[in-house]
Amino acid sequence: VAVAEMAFAGWLGARVSLKSVPLGEPVERDDFILFSESNTRFLAEVAPEDRDKFEAAMNGTSFAAIGQVTDSEVLEIYGLDAQGVLALSLGELKEAWQKPIQW
Questions:
Q1: Which DSSP state fits 14?
Q2: Which of 29, 38, 15, 19 is nearest to 86 (CA)?
Q3: Hey, which bits of 39-81 come out as E strands?
Q4: Using an 8 Å Cβ cutoff, are 16 and 26 in contact?
Q5: What pLDDT sits at residue 25?
């Protein structure tokens, strides 16, 4: 959900790989990674030119680049097996996200 909310803000898509997500313990299911509510998990967007500075600032912590921003207006998520889990337009995602509060 956090990746989709971030995409809505700039109306830019993203490509994310669940294989790259740092985990505290082995997880074998994509849905567990996608919907985990683990403490102290953060998601940050970093411009390519700022990557080295960001990584230096994060030194000593567990972090990883899990994807990239795209200009496609599509959120693509690839699972632990590198197969597509989700590929939906931001319009579809935003409609589903807002639907529960439109009554």
A1: E
A2: 15
A3: 67-70, 74-78
A4: no
A5: 86
Q: Which two tokens stand for residue 100?
A: 């529960």
Q: Along the chain (103 residues), what's the average pLDDT of each consecutive run of 10 residues?
A: 93 97 91 84 93 96 95 97 97 93 76
Entry pTM = 0.88
C-alpha–C-alpha distance, residues 42 and 58, integer Å: 12
Torsion, CA 52, CA 47, CA 82, CA 85, rounded to 10: 150
Rounded CA gap, 76 and 67, in Å? 10
Residues pairing with 69 in the sheet:
14
Is 13:74 a contact under the CB 8 Å cutoff? yes
Q: Three-class SS of residue 75? A: strand
Indicate the length of the chain as a whole number. 103
Q: Any idea which residue has 């529960």 for tokens?
A: 100
Distance separating alpha carbons of residues 74 and 77, to the nearest angstrom: 10
Token pair for residue 65?
């680049």
